[in-house]
Write a structure and sequence with these properties.
Layout (H helix, E strand, L loop, with lengths): L1 H23 L10 H4 L20 E29 L3 E9 L2 E8 L6 E8 L14 E11 L3 E14 L3 E8 L2 E4 L5 E7 L2 E4 L5 E7 L2 E6 L7 E8 L2 E6 L3 E8 L2 E4 L7 E8 L2 E5 L5 E6 L5 E3 L4 E8 L2 E8 L4 E9 L2 E5 L1
Parallel strand pairs: 1-4, 1-5, 1-6, 6-7, 6-8, 7-9, 8-10, 9-11, 10-12, 11-13, 12-14, 13-15, 14-16, 15-17, 16-18, 17-23, 18-24, 19-23, 20-24
Antiparallel strand pairs: 1-2, 2-5, 3-4, 19-22, 21-22
């Protein structure tokens, strides 16, 4: 009898030990589904997000849609590093790292191809989420767009570092952040209230403006006769190199204006600053007519000038002179700063 009781006691002890050991083992949670597991976008078809997919948390997401090669794209970015690159596909690809979910809204389709030729890219909000300021704008750590080479981009933003490369035309306006644009074939209009603007290797009518920041442009050309290049900053320097538009206007309220390049026959050049210097570097054999007003500053030229008028009285300093046959016209104005014309 005592042997049976002993065996039963040992069995009970073993069962309790197994139960305690099993309960103490950590439970392995199921592997969460990644965004790519939830859906895989098929080129040419904007895939809807499945019901219940979380939309208010930061996700890493990629979507794509087939479009017309001349598509116009509207995009708003609340914050993040934005990079737009042209490629040889008739497709728009959007990648967002750790940010809001992107969605497509086709505003218009091409009559012959049936593909989107006017596309809006915006944040997909969860159902029931009330709209707010910039609530439909994308946001994330990094935002990347691949778009057709002939695409036109219409971008607005709040706080974003923006890089745009190799598309047809750009219209961008941001509250703050640097903007870098290159290889644009059909014109640029870029405005930021606080940030630098850099443009290179582009063509067309170009308008650049920043309230607080520097402007640098080099290797740009007009797309057609009469295209204007205009750059303006409130506080910063304007530097132009190899800008071959025949109409150039560059100004700064508080900063230096620099120009280095050829003066083209028939060209109209206007350089102005309220408090700063104006510096020109042009070929020795240039031909131009120059008018200069330099207030409390000084004027100097390495290139021999044929003065037709010069006044350095108390009412202000101004002059007019001709070099060669005066084929182009230059107007230089500074209230408090130096003006210099140097030979390249």
């Amino acid at each position: 009898m005592s042997v049976k009781i002993y065996k039963i006691g040992v069995l009970l002890i073993l069962l309790c030990t197994v139960s305690v050991f099993t309960a103490a083992q950590p439970t392995t949670p199921p592997k969460p589904k990644s965004t790519s597991d939830v859906y895989k976008p098929r080129p040419g078809t904007p895939v809807p997000y499945p019901p219940g997919f979380p939309r208010d948390t930061k996700q890493t997401t990629e979507r794509s849609i087939m479009v017309d090669p001349n598509v116009s794209i509207k995009l708003c970015v609340a914050e993040g590093n934005l990079k737009v690159t042209g490629w040889e596909r008739n497709e728009v690809r959007v990648f967002v790292r750790s940010g809001r979910l992107p969605g497509f809204k086709v505003l218009e389709k091409d009559a012959s191809s049936g593909k989107a030729n006017w596309l809006m890219i915006s944040h997909v909000r969860a159902e029931g989420t009330p709209p707010g300021p910039m609530s439909e704008c994308l946001a994330g750590q990094d935002i990347e767009l691949d778009v057709p080479l002939k695409a036109k981009m219409d971008l607005s933003g709040r706080s974003t570092e923006t890089v745009i490369d190799s598309i047809r035309k750009v219209n961008v306006k941001t509250a703050e952040g640097d903007i870098s644009i290159r290889n644009i074939a059909g014109g640029i209009n870029a405005i930021t209230y606080q940030g630098n603007l850099i443009v290179e290797s582009s063509e067309g009518s170009i308008m650049l403006e920043t309230t607080s920041g520097n402007i640098l442009a080099f290797g740009v050309n007009p797309g057609q006769i009469g295209d204007l290049f205009k750059a303006r900053t409130g506080s910063g320097n304007v530097t132009l190199q190899q800008v071959e538009h025949r109409q150039i206007e560059a100004s700064s309220i508080s900063g230096t204006v620099n120009f280095k390049g050829k003066l083209l026959a028939g060209g109209l050049y206007g350089f102005k600053t309220s408090s700063g210097s104006i510096r020109l570097q042009v070929p020795l054999k240039s031909s131009f007519t120059v008018k200069a007003s330099y207030g409390f500053g000084v004027f100097a030229s390495d290139i021999p000038l044929n003065y037709t008028y010069k006044n350095e009285g108390e009412g202000g300093k101004n002059l007019q002179a001709i070099v060669g046959t005066g084929d182009s016209n230059i107007n230089l104005t500074t209230s408090n700063g130096a003006i210099s014309i140097r030979k390249q």
